[in-house]
Design goal:
The protein has about 425 residues and is α/β, with parallel strands linked by helices. The chain contains twelve helices and 18 strands. It has an eight-stranded mixed beta sheet with strand order 11-10-9-8-7-14-15-16, with helices on both faces. Strands 1-6-5-2-3-4 form a six-stranded parallel beta sheet. A two-stranded antiparallel ribbon has the order 12-18. The structure holds iron/sulfur cluster (2 copies).
Length: about 425
């Protein structure tokens, strides 16, 4: 982004609005604030462009909203003001390359904050205060979004086994205290058949094949081929701690390549040849990535869900604050859960520590009883009975092995 393309202060904005015929890009809260600001200051905006994915464009305060394709024509006399957040500027820059415009300006987050609050009836002392209020609003919006069914499943864990050859204290799948258990291949095959029938082999963006440590499953290669056969367009992630990765034979690498599987490795601070893993995957033309955020350095700061053994947290509040609600879905033996935590703490934590966290029929879907995918989307966006056992995340802590003590999961002062 060229510095001169950034719109950083009100004076610049006024000059552009007063000297040009202007279009806006984006029809969200920011765009509404800019339209409202322009109208208060007697400037006009000719139109608002939105992405082709945008549903039902309708006017904002009398300014027409149009999809991009309707503007794939010469509009060289107009200046485009991009009203989306800075984090999306790059993406939008690419999206608008086909437009022929007089000029394009990207509004900075700082200026957006100013405009939003210039158009609202707040008395504010400082920009810092504006920022704080805006962060609160964003947090609120994010929480509200947890309750909105999505048009697809963004992410689903396919749990193929419980146990692991590492024993991380921060394991939210409870693999560090699990008895050895492999989900039989036949069960996985049948579940994938059923899921693919319901989702028409689509509508799940990512399937993460994991456990436990998936490389310990003797039928892993058949499972990978099955996932691909049933979901031809889905991103398949094989999430591994990497301990066994460099011992894999040609057949393993071929299966990953042919089924377009991405190996995802978390860099735990243990003595492993992470560079060699990456090199080997490149040599084999297999997609490989380090787990998000662990690319350049050894982790780890870990964190985990803290369990409220009394089960008296407010489930709706826990769900709203949860970092994986309406996202981190989990499939295990014909049952679809909203998260790994509920299924695995119920099965593994209860048994290991002789606890009685209760699960109800509200906490999972039996995939053989569900009518259509809409039920999954609605289920994913609904707080579960089990959310009463969550109190939030622990503070970050250095990666270490679990001592298999219950105190690792509970807040003893509660
Ligand atoms: S490597 Fe993963 S599955 Fe294994 S104990 Fe650690 S966090 Fe759990
Ligand atoms: S039980 Fe509810 S709050 Fe807890 S991790 Fe799962 S979805 Fe989140």
């Amino acid at each position: 982004m060229k510095a001169e393309a950034l719109l950083n202060n009100i004076e610049q904005m006024n000059k552009i609005l007063s000297e040009n015929a202007c279009l806006l890009y984006g029809a969200g809260r920011n765009a509404k604030a800019i339209v409202s600001y322009a109208s208060k200051e007697n400037y006009s905006i000719d139109g608002i462009l939105v992405s082709e994915m945008y549903g039902n464009p309708c006017d904002i305060m009398g300014v027409p909203v149009c999809r991009m394709q309707e503007y794939k024509k010469n509009i060289s006399d107009k200046v485009l003001i991009v009203s989306v957040r800075e984090a999306l500027h790059r993406e939008i820059e690419e999206e608008i390359t086909s437009l022929i415009l007089k000029d394009v300006f990207f509004v900075t987050d700082k200026l957006l904050s100013k405009i939003i609050y210039k158009t609202a009836d707040y008395e504010l002392d400082s920009l810092e205060q504006l920022g704080r209020i805006e962060r609160k609003l964003e947090e609120h919006e994010n929480r509200m979004l947890r309750f909105v069914p999505k048009p697809c499943l963004e992410y689903m864990v396919l749990n193929i086994l419980d146990h692991c050859n590492l024993r991380c204290k921060g394991c939210d799948h409870f693999a560090c205290v699990a008895d050895p258990y492999l989900v039989p291949y036949e069960t996985i095959h049948r579940d994938l058949d059923r899921l693919s029938e319901i989702f028409h082999g689509d509508y799940i963006m990512q399937i993460a094949v994991m456990g436990g440590e998936p490389l310990l499953h003797p039928d892993l290669l058949k499972i990978l081929a099955d996932v691909r056969k049933h979901f031809p367009h889905t991103i398949i992630r094989l999430t591994t701690n990497g301990l066994l990765l460099l011992n894999q034979n040609d057949e393993f690498w071929r299966a990953c390549r042919e089924n377009n599987v991405t190996i995802v490795n978390t860099k735990y601070p243990i003595n492993l040849k992470f560079d060699k893993m990456k090199e080997k995957a490149d040599e084999e033309s297999v997609k490989f990535q380090f787990f998000e955020g662990t690319g350049d350095h050894l982790i780890k700061k870990s964190f985990k869900k803290i369990i409220n053994l009394k089960g008296n947290s407010n489930p709706t509040e826990s769900f709203a604050k949860c970092h994986i609600s309406n996202y981190g879905n989990f499939l295990m033996e014909g049952k679809f859960y909203g998260c790994p935590f509920s299924c695995q703490s119920y099965r593994i934590f209860n048994k290991k520590f002789d606890q009685n966290l209760r699960m109800t029929e509200n906490d999972f879907l039996d995939i053989y009883k569900v009518k259509d995918m809409k039920e999954f989307f609605e289920f994913a966006a609904r707080p579960k009975y089990y959310c009463r056992y969550c109190t939030g995340l622990s503070p970050l802590f250095d990666w270490t092995r679990s001592k298999k003590e219950i105190s690792e999961w509970i807040d003893e002062e509660e």
